[in-house]
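for the record, two folds in this file. i put them one after another cuz i was lazy. first one right below, seq on top, structure tokens after. the second one comes after a little note so u can tell where it starts
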Amino acid sequence: METEKQPVPGPERPARELSEEDLLLGKKTVRVIEIMCLAAIAVCAGIAVFVFASVPLDTKLPYNGQFGRNGIPMPIAMLAVFLVLTGLWRATKKPDAHHLSKGARVRVPILGAVLILAFVGAQWAMAHAILVEGGALQA
């Protein structure tokens, strides 16, 4: 009987060896994503502070969902994007975050920038809706 070698799934699969140059370029790529995340966190924090200062704390983000809620409380709505961006930033701090192949070094900054801009846009849209609901801004 012959024993066939099956491909090893997931984390047990041996990683492709990356050269020293690949690791250095991977560190630069991760650093770019880290800086973009920190800038987005600062922007979102600024938006949240402006909203907190402009409307009453009990203002709700308008939401007509299936569970009959009248809205999402403002502190929770302003915290959601901040938590997602913080998670993305923490992913850049993993010890092996810079182990990126050539293709990943191209894809990661593009996808990262698109995601980060989408998150900041979502924070802006939620802030606008809360400011309108709280009466601080005209629709």
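(here's the note) second protein begins now
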Amino acid sequence: MQIFAILGLVGVTLGMVGAAAVPESKGAPKTCAELNVTLGGQCDPAVDCHQCGYCDKFIRCGNSTRTWDEVACDVKVEDDGSILVTGKLFWNQGSNEHGGICDLWDELPDDQQTQYRADPDCKPGCEFKSDAACLRRYTYKDPKFEAGLWDSAPKTLMCPAFTQWNNTELTCQFCHDGGDCNANC
């Protein structure tokens, strides 16, 4: 049986999903693996009430589908396309007796915040993309967490004349193909 994996993470990550402790009266939170949860697998909403998740997604037993469904926590995208840390909800594992909730960043335990920020599959990093229509043009994203950004809007930038963006080196380089690499700009 295939065990559920959020964002392609398996094994070790799943073991961390239920690491937070809760009061004894509520019982220890369980991981997706411990619950034998398989994304898309059959479940009974009357019995399978426990949820499990990671980063900004969680799994729950769908009332109408009667299968284990992945659901994204809510996010507010700013007009410029950026996402503020305060405008995004994250899975807070073990925060209640049914496994967790989508919660504000400041409400997550410190160890969970550290784990999410360190995981490149959870926290977006810097990103460069070339523009096929104009080899000089590229976009750049720099989500500065310290400035309150979870993900930034892409900024369009240009290489100098007679140069083009190199996706491998992530910088501008001279045109070496003999043609006019700036023709469409």
